[in-house]
Amino acid sequence: MVFSTPCCTSPREAGTAAPARVGPGWRGWIWLLGLLWVLWSAGLVRADTLQLAREPSGLVLSARLDVDLPDGLEDVLLKGVPVHFVWQADVRRTRWYWTDQRVASAQRVVRLAYQPLTRRWRLSVLPETGGDPGLAAALHRNLDTLDEALAVVKSVSRWRIVAAEDLPDAGELRVDVQFRIDGGLLPRPFQVGGTGPVNWGVVYRETLKVSEFDAASDQDKP
After folding, report:
1. Would you give per-residue pLDDT tens digits along the chain (222 residues)?
2. Secondary structure (DSSP) of the chain
3. Cβ–Cβ contacts within 10 Å for residue 68, how many?
4. Are the CB atoms for 67 and 79 separated by under 8 Å?
5. Which of 89, 111, 173, 186 has a Cα-to-Cα distance from 210 of 20 to 30 A?
6. pTM higher than the cut 0.85
7. Rounded to whole angstroms, how far apart are CA atoms 81 and 180?
8. Any residues with CB less than 8 A from the CB of 141 and at least 6 apart, and which?
9. 77 Cβ contact list (under 8 Å, min separation 6)
10. Residue 44 CB burial class (10 angstroms; 0-12, 13-18, ≥19)
11. What CA–CA distance (Å, rounded) separates 206 from 44?
């Protein structure tokens, strides 16, 4: 005598369609956005952007940094002490047979000071490094909050770092970009005393290759 047991029939064999896969849905998107916000707040996600472009006038740099500034900066500013921020760009041509050739160097100095009477922040873009004597020829701008002022300090737009006539016709170029706080322009007590940030200096540095960032130059060619 032969015994047989009927086997189970899968839904697909029985003609029943398999359930469709469901995407993450709106709850998943909310969770993802929340995670990105936490990472952003913790400083794990940065939005530093730097872009080089060749223009008829020369090589220009646009940048926006999302970097943390040293502790104690706000306390020093609220005491009425101006702080100088320095953007520096060194353009070099690489040479396989010798050290890199320095083609040009540019500096942009921004002075930030708090005005207690008006409770506003005054930004001054100095023509060159040299401190307060250059204020007469500086470009000034007043802002209401420190956050607004620091956002302007940590950004540059279409800053010409080398003139067109100084650019070499051949060779690979690189640009060493540096953003720092010039502690040497602080009053003496803040440089050597216990009340000042003696360790202020370079906040951000990056090296860019011109060939990777000059895509915008094609539209300027005849």
Report:
1. 444 445 444 444 445 555 544 445 656 656 656 555 544 444 334 558 999 998 999 999 999 999 998 888 898 899 999 999 999 999 998 887 888 888 899 999 999 999 999 999 999 998 765 455 566 667 889 999 999 999 999 999 999 999 999 888 777 889 999 999 988 888 776 665 544 555 678 999 999 988 644 444 433 433
2. -----PPPPPTTTTTPPPPPPP--HHHHHHHHHHHHHHHHHHT-S---EEEEEEETTEEEEEEE---PPPTTHHHHHHTT--EEEEEEEEEEE--TTSSPEEEEEEEEEEEEEEETTTTEEEEEEESSSSSGGGGGG-EEEEESSHHHHHHHHTEEEEEEEEEGGGS-SSS-EEEEEEEEE-GGGS-HHHHHSTTS-TT--EEEEEEEEHHHH-GGGGGG--
3. 9
4. no
5. 111
6. no
7. 17
8. 122, 123, 124, 152
9. 83, 112, 113, 114, 146
10. exposed
11. 18
Alpha-carbon radius of gyration of the chain = 28
Q: What's the one-letter identity of residue 98?
A: W
Tokens of 115: 């005005």
Tokens at 106, concatenated: 């540019």
